[in-house]
Amino acid sequence: MLKTRIIPTLLWKDYGLVKGQKFDSWRVIGSILPSVKVFNTRQVDELVILDISATQQQRKIDFKTIKEVAGFCFVPLSVGGGIRDVEDAKELLRSGADKVVINSVCYENPDFITELSKKFGSQCVVVSIDVKKHEDGKYYCYSHAGTVSTGQEMLAFAKMAEEKGAGEIILNDIERDGVMNGYNLEITKQVSEIVNIPLIISGGAGRLEDFSEAFNEGANALAAAAIFQFTQVTPMEIKDHLKTQGIPVRK
Amino acid sequence: MISAEVLIVDYGMGNLYSVKRALEECKVQKVVISNKKEDFLTCTHMILPGVGAFGDAMQNIHELGLYDLIRENVLNDKVPFLGICLGMQLMATRGTEYGSHEGLGLIDGEVLRLEKNGKSERIPHVGWNEIKKTQQSNPLLNNIGENSDFYFVHSYHFSAKNQDNVIASTPYSHGFTSMVAKEHIFGVQFHPEKSGKNGFQLLKNFLNIN
Prior knowledge:
The complex is a heterodimer of chains A (251) and B (210).
Chain A: E1 5-13, E2 16-21, E3 24-30, H1 32-40, E4 47-51, H2 63-70, E5 77-80, H3 86-94, E6 99-102, H4 105-108, H5 111-120, E7 125-133, E8 139-143, E9 148-153, H6 154-164, E10 168-173, H7 185-194, E11 199-202, H8 208-216, E12 221-224, H9 226-230, H10 235-244
Helix pairs in contact in A: 8-10
Chain B: E1 2-9, H1 16-25, E2 28-34, H2 37-42, E3 45-48, H3 54-63, H4 66-76, E4 81-84, H5 86-89, E5 94-95, E6 101-102, E7 109-113, E8 125-130, E9 132-133, E10 149-154, E11 156-160, E12 166-170, E13 176-182, E14 185-188, H6 196-207
Parallel strand pairs in B: 1-2, 1-3, 3-4, 4-14, 5-7
Antiparallel strand pairs in B: 5-6, 7-11, 8-10, 9-12, 12-13, 13-14
């Protein structure tokens, strides 16, 4: 049976790892290579590294550092930040990333999803969707690390991403990011019902129960950051908890 | 130290570097990423990794003149060969991703799209899943327990013509072939280089096959 993945997310900004709240007030929490080495010894199922300032600073991700980090990552590694063309993606995969995470570029050029998926296979194209709830009660997508409102409605955009060839979706509620008051179960359920590709839910995990609740609403993988940085909870404890709930995890 | 000289075939696609790093962790004598003829002549083991679409991959293999080099090494010189993920699929007779394409023809079979089995399944099949051995004694499975988890990420699967070539399957979709073997020729649908401890064991098993 397919196991539910626990995925630490590492946010990378100006040469260090950071963690904020609601995509703001970033705190430096360490450096990238030691963190990757530690997570590799801790039974995590995958790692996500996002360079959150690359797009805004209009620069490429630091492929050299990714290559260095990938050399010590013996679980799957998804990497994103500032990816704008096929050459960027190719360079990232050559640097040792297993999957390419794209976000802002999808709003300007949705066909880029198709282009990447035809070139490298849909399974290595991950579309990251950052959303906020608007006054009409619906969720809308934001680009450029949550700073630009795109006006695109979440469900329509998620469906479009799938149709264009995305292999997975990472869905993040900006308002819950780093707050540790639980995943947004509403969007987990809505998006998991509308797409057929795997859904990684992100943003808000703070207690063991948050993980099992999101799984029960349809998430296929559970991403988290703050809980690993600011609490004593380990990936293994989360897996043990999921196991007691009858949720399949990697042994 | 494992005394093997491994050639990772570079056909311009995929996570070649991850495979190299995993082999280095297995303490193998020499690993090269290359598509040069001289490296085909000196290697003791070949690995064909791969991420990407079948048609593009075969096109690259032909353009780089690798089709004959790979086949000669494997079929004439009997160099142990391991295809990983797309690399396993390319071993088939034919692929069906974005049109029909001829493969390397190392093990008879076709590459077909995974079909969803039930509402909760999603395609691509991404994540950790177990293997069920269909043959117990294959050397590639030494010291790897039944139901061991490996990391998968794929939308297509290898459908072997001859069941004797299947050594393990995985319970997803309608149950697909996750490992194939024919003498010194092996293919795995998962990524041993990304499967932690189990993956290292499998790579070591391969390197110890002569």
